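Weekly structure sync, notes
Attendees: PL (lead), two postdocs, one rotation student
Agenda item 3: pending single-chain targets
PL asked that the sequence for the first pending target be pasted directly into the notes so everyone works from the same version. It is reproduced below exactly as submitted, 735 residues in total.
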Amino acid sequence: MKPMIAFLIAVVTAATVSIIPSTAPGAPGFGNGGRASGTSDRLVKPFRSSRVGANFGKQTSSLGAIAKAEKQTRQGAANARSLGFDVQAGRVRVVVEVASSVGAARTTIAAAGGEVEATHARLVQALVPPSAIESIAGSAAVAYVRAPHRPIEQAVLGEEVAGSNASVFQTAGWNGSGVKVAIIDTGFAGLAARQAANDLPAGLTTVDFCGGAFSTASEHGTAVAEIVHETAPQAQLYLICMNSEVTLGQAEAYAKTNGITIVNMSIGWLNTARGDGNGAAGTPDAIVADARANGILWVNAAGNAALTHWSGTFSDTDGDDVHNFTPTDEGNTIFLGAGQQTCAFLKWDNWPASAQDFDLYLVNSTSSTIAAGSENFQDGSQPPLEELCYTNSGVAGNFFIAIVRFAATSTPRFDLFTLSPLEYAVAAGSVTEPASSPNAMAVGALCWADASLRPYSSLGPTIDGRTKPDIVGLDGVSGGTYGLPSGCSGGFTGTSASSPHVAGLAALGKQQNPSLTPAQLQRWLEARAQDVATAGKDNFTGAGRAFVYTFTDSPPATPLHLYIEQLFKKGTTTGCSQLDAVTGLRSYCPNQLVTRRDMAVFIIRSLNLSELLSPTPTFADVPADMFGYGFVERFYAQGITTGCSASPLNFCPLDTITRRDMAVFIVRSKNLTQLLSPTPTFSDVPADMFGYGHGERFFEQGITTGCAAAPLRFCPLDFVDRKATAAFLIRAFGT
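Predicted structure, written out during the meeting:
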């Protein structure tokens, strides 16, 4: 099968990836591949038994085996189940790649007793009798028959909200309101319970492209949706269920039609394309590219494959046509518990069609017998890939994966992915499709408790040398579906959890900046990410840990950060520079000192008053063409200022204001009287100082607590910067 992968650590099911610990209970270590010291895996090149029967060049070897089992024993459906296929009422779910027209392929399938479930691009998903597989493959209307690229959830079973500054952003008023976010996933079991518990809103939209399995296939999507909702609680959510690349195409079409601007998919796919974003029509790559071209930011889990991926070129040091993972070892060992399922996916860099023919096998390390194999035909018209699934029906033990050259003249790069940790794992290049595409924002995973990179989080670079992931989010978080974490264990873990966290942050950014394109919104997020280790974007954590805040020069660690965010949300400031949509940068200049002109602008905006464009300037030093002229005129008309000097009347617009000036201006603007306390509150503001009564009222109103204690001081002649101004204004006028 070619499953999608959902990024969560859990028990293996048909739609859930299991990433077990590198040493599972009762499992031997991988120091020697789980074998006795000094031994190595060996495999004699097997006879290709599946290359029998009709049309084997137009179908995968697993389908050939199903057809053979049906002919010989009438056990085709049972064989299909054992190979990981979906079977319903004795019919096997397949995808038909169209040769001529979709209509002709549909006719062929129907004539053979099959049922078409969905179509997208030049792909037809259908349920077909095992006895009809060969005849369908033999039709001139059909190019190829294979298993669907099924989804694999990327989970490794409210901390992410605080850990990304989203809680501050929400307090400032950014909550995703007006933004449509789709969660595309494999199932939403338990949704009603989560809505009843207020973990998810009642007013969300559900869409079922899963053939009625929306509420039964998996609870994974429900857990993902919880995180989006926690991060962007007012975003409009669309929960869309799909079960193959065909129905994924339908989900994306729905998103376009309904004005959705952000998609989260905590699902990965294997063996669908090269990994450079240029997959053929109907692949996840092509679907994601179309989404971005139509205004959708596609946020995708990067994958949990750092421990389950190997990459390298074919090497045959002993000339027996079996790949050597080391000079003396032809097997890459995994451990399987009793009843545990694994799958293995091999592709080589010879896209889109290959005449370099390799095969893939899973071998029992104890008996040296082949447990499962994939022997697809490659004669120049088939894709360069093999894949197998196997459930261990015996006792727990080691198995090894072997790559065999059937007929090849080159030594291409291989990428091998499994659902079990590998003896020889290569973390580099382990980002799965479509997260590897330049049109998807790939999200890796950090533990919420200590911000450490998860050992399973997939790493770049891509096969064409691009940096991935793009950013990292937090996992191991609590939720109604997967419960509470304990440190870096438990809760909802994996890039399945970190991806919706970033999608929710994107919704906050989209609400604040609705005109941003997908590329610009991605850059907005990346520009605010905090480096984890290496400075700059890298193949471990991308641009860094996802954070949200408005001004790139005023991150969460900035003193009085919340006040700055609230001042922007209120509309009192747009910063000292506008948003650069290309770089994502926007500045507030928090340490810049505030002038009298700045103060006029801030206070008039705080009062929600309009500018007063007097035909004749009041102040000699504030001409009508000066920035802030209308604000200064209104400042004077409201009685907040009388200027800085007379004869002529001047305002001194560029003079820096002091804390005393701030008190005078704000008290006057609020129409408050001076408070002439008999005993001074501040040791440095005596009763005979100008502004004494304003300073007392300033303190009494809770707008200031002074500049120092023991003794309590106000520092009246100290200059005021823009970050302190934000605090004074929000305390005085509210949000």
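Discussion points:
- The chain has four domains: 20-47+308-418, 61-146, 157-304+432-528, 596-733.
- Residues 1-5, 7-38 have pLDDT under 50 and may be disordered.
Action: rotation student to compare against the earlier draft before next sync.
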